[in-house]
Amino acid sequence: MCRMLENIFWLGIKELFSLRRDAALIFLIIFSLTIFVYSPAKDVKMDVDHASLAVVDEDHSLLSQHILDAFMPPLFMKAAEISVEQIDDVMDTGKYTFVVDIPPRFERDLKHGSRPAIQINVDATAMAEAGRGALYIQQILTEEISYVIYHTEKATEPPFNVVVRGKFNPNFTFAWFVSVMQVVNSVTMLALFLTGAAVIREREHGTLEHLLAMPLRPSETMLAKIWANGLVIICAALLSLILVVKGVLGVPIAGSLVLFAGGVAIYLFSITSLSIMIATAVNSMPQFGLLALPVFIILYLLSGTTTPMESMPERLQKIMQFSPSTHFVGFAQAVLYRGAGLDLVWQNCVAVAVLGLIFFSIALIRFRRMLVQVQA
Residue 162: inside a domain, yes or no? Predict the structure, then answer.
């Protein structure tokens, strides 16, 4: 047992030295946990932020002026006034994302109890901004109409008041969610490509034959690659959370980083085993990239980092329960966002560990077959 642990340790050290000489992989690690985390959080805008808006005021009443003045930063830029004839042109050229058309006699019709229509023209090219912006416009129109009509008609106020409290992200800041999920996605990507690349590198450089000449078991070789690459990814992920997410972006980390690191270690055992399994099915690095990339895309899109699992088809939800990334995303969100302890996330850890053992067993069988082929 001691001899096996010693072999695994020194083989892992060899992997670290090999990784140190691979400039491309080092660049991938640094890029994926810095720029890949920072840029989407700061530059990708899913929230409505200074959206361009124009108003066609055909009513010229006190109410229409209130509506015009209600569109203010930071949600919208100061509303521009245009004519009815300009609507098609400004929408076709993309000058404004939203155009609100207030019809003639709008305030008078409201006071007489009719239900006049306000037309909201939306450029849905920017789909997320268009959808949310249209809801904000409806809310602003409702508030302004209620304010003017209630105050001019002496109507009673509504008998209720809706109060919304956002927990864990009180300002609904998009960057808080994206930055942490980008770290999770980077961990998945690095685990897939680093470990698989280590196996392919052994075959392409001919060092796999040297390992065969040593009294080593295939399981020892696999475990060495797993712990060495896993250690690098864990350290890089923690540094990214502390320096980039918390330090630069100012996103609070609610839970324990030690617990998160433990969950990452279990997850890396699973994903790196999957990576080795993929590497045993190909003969070169380009082939490995072509096979590993679709796997990463599936894990990225269907694990819950971009779309909540509840919004996916029920059959797909059941299928994705066999993916370790699904359980890890739930674990990461619970720990980093909501400050959950081990008593709340242990089931996710167990699920990832079980899937990891399955992947490791399959990868070990295929790795042994690959060694037999190399010997032949």
Answer: no
77 and 16 in a common domain? no
> Against a cut of 0.90, is the pTM above it?
no
Do residues 70 and 140 lie in contact, with contact meaning Cβ atoms separated by under 8 Å? yes
**Which residues does 124 contact at the CB level (< 8 Å), separation at least 6?**
130, 131
Which tokens sit at 117?
């229509």
Q: Are residues 296 and 186 in the same domain?
A: yes
What contacts 224, CB < 8 A, 6 or more positions away?
A: 7, 8, 9, 10, 11, 12, 14, 15
Name, of 126-135, 202-211, 244-253, 300-309, the range with top average pLDDT: 244-253
Q: How far apart are CA 299 and CA 321, in angstroms?
A: 11
| DSSP string over 4-46 | HHHHHHHHHHHHHHHHHT-HHHHHHHHHHTTHHHHHHHHH---
Which residue range is the domain that position 334 belongs to?
2-44+173-375
CA distance 224 to 10: 8
Task: Report the SS3 class of residue 169.
Answer: coil
Task: Concatenate the DSSP letters of all residues of 58-111 into one string.
Answer: SS-SHHHHHHHHH--TTTBPPPEE--GGGHHHHHHTTS-SEEEEEPTTHHHHHH
The one-letter amino acid at 296: F
d(CA 130, CA 353): 42
Cα separation of 2 and 208, whole Å? 23
**Quick one: which H or E segment has residue 244?**
none
Residue 152's pLDDT is 47
Which candidate, 254, 233, 173, 281, places its Cα nearest to that of 32? 233
Is there a single domain that holds both residue 199 and residue 270?
Answer: yes
Q: Is residue 161 part of a domain?
A: no
Distance (Å, whole) CA 70 – CA 83: 19
Task: Note whether residue 164 is domain-resident.
Answer: no
Q: How far apart are CA 288 and CA 296, in angstroms?
A: 12
Instruction: Tokens for 206, please give them.
Output: 């001919």
Beta bridge partners of 55: 81, 100
**245-254 tens-digit pLDDT:** 999 988 899 8
The residue among 125, 153, 181 that closes a domain is: 153
CB atoms within 10 A of CB 292: 20
Mean pLDDT computed over 55-62: 89
